[in-house]
Every structure is written in structure tokens, then in C-alpha cells.
Amino acid sequence: MDDETDEPIPEYQDALAAFHQAFGDELRELIRALPIAQGNRVIDLACGDGRYAAWLADRVGPRGEAVAVDLSGSYLDLARRVVRDHGAGGRVSFVEADALRVPFPDGAFDLAWCARSLRSLPDAAEVLREMARLVRPGGAVAVLEEDALHHLILPWPEDLELALRQAELETLAEQLGQPRSYYAGRRLPQLAREAGLDRVTVSTRAIDRWAPLAKPERAFIDLELAALRDRVVSHIDPEMRAIFDRLVDPGSDAYLPARPDFTMTCIERVVVGHRPGS
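The structure corresponding to this sequence follows.
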């Protein structure tokens, strides 16, 4: 039985799990498009709940290996359970480490992967350089990252959406000091080249959902709207707040996801670069 830590799971895990359940088919398609072959060795940096590590293990097959790395011991405990339940336990190993100081030699992997984590890491460019170090010459570095301004398209009134974006920027500036980290998706190709990668490609997937929402999709958007309200509530003027509150209150007759014409589009971007050499 795995030893478990008393460290709490990060509070955003519920939203992450809901995201994986709501868009799992499309996310697996993104994994299937990566330059991975049977028998490869891959590493998942900042692996979180292990969902991507399990999907990567499917790609490398029984002769390959996936290594899941996270600084959080509690997240690694959860990742072990997720991977085991997926049936990939024998093909995934787990390492507790900082994404900037991964305890493997240069060129140890065929592909390094990081999903939706650069914004929470201190220096995206340094993480990409570490990923480039970890792959063999000719190996690939692949990053799935969102851009907060364009990640989720919802049918807001136009003036309200502008107010929400400004409020989010003000909140992130207060909390982080450098809110640009939440908009890393648009800068990924540039960051990849700065990290010394070549043959950089970009693949963007727009994932559409519409009413009536399936249960995982409704759980995802409920959590997203609750988190958005927490971020902007202190930075939006009273008139706009009154409109916003009606649209994001699940008990309101105007609750946005309950509308029969509701739609949402989730935009995911994968950037792949290669370590020079062959």
C-alpha cells in the first residue's frame, strides 16, 4: 500500500477533475497527436492528479515508461490512485521534485510533457529549458497551456465581459504581482524558441458544448463560474456586479448554464518543440 502524506490536495483539484471529465475525449485526442512511439520514455512535469500520465502511458505501451513528477506529495498520492484505477500502474513511476530541478540526467526521455501548469510555476521559460534538457537530441517538448483571456468563451453581454476581464487583471496583479503568467498560452511559441527548441509547431483545439449539458460539463462550468466570481467580486462596479450575480447564481432564473440556448467553447493549445540534434 502506498504511503500517503497529510498534505492537503490543492483546492483547485475539483475544478481540474471536472475539466478532465468534461473534455476527456478531446484531451486524449491531443495526447494521441503527440510525437510518441511505442516503447518511448516520457515525463509529465507538474503531473497533478496523474490523468495525463495515465494517458501518456497508454501511448508508450507495455514496453515504454511514463514518469510523473510533482512537488506536492499529496498530489502524487492521488496520481498513484488515478493511474492505478486507469490500469497503467505498472508503466508509470512517480517522483517528488521541483519542475526546475528534476533528478534525471540530460537526454533521459523521448518526450517531456507539461499540462496547464506553467501559469502556476515561477518561471515558464526556465521550466521549458529544463524540459529541453531532459529530452534526447531530436526529442520533443510538448506543453498544453491555456490563455486566460481566451480559454473559455461564454455568451456574456459584451459590456459585462469587458468589465470582467479588467477585474480579473486587477485581481491577478494584486495576488501575483505578475499577472502575465496567466496569459502564457499566447507566448508559448516564443518561449519555446527562447528555450533553444526548434521545429516548433502549434495545435489549437476549440471544444464546443451546448445545452442541455451533460453532468460532467455542468459540474465544470458551475465550478468555473464560482471561481470567476471569487476572483472579480471586489473589482467590479455595483451595476455590473448586479447583472453578473444573476448570471452566475445557480439559484437564479437567469443562471447562464441553465439557459436553453447556452453554449461554451473551451480553447486548448498544444505547442511542441524539439531539442536540436538527431
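The chain has one domain: 13-274.
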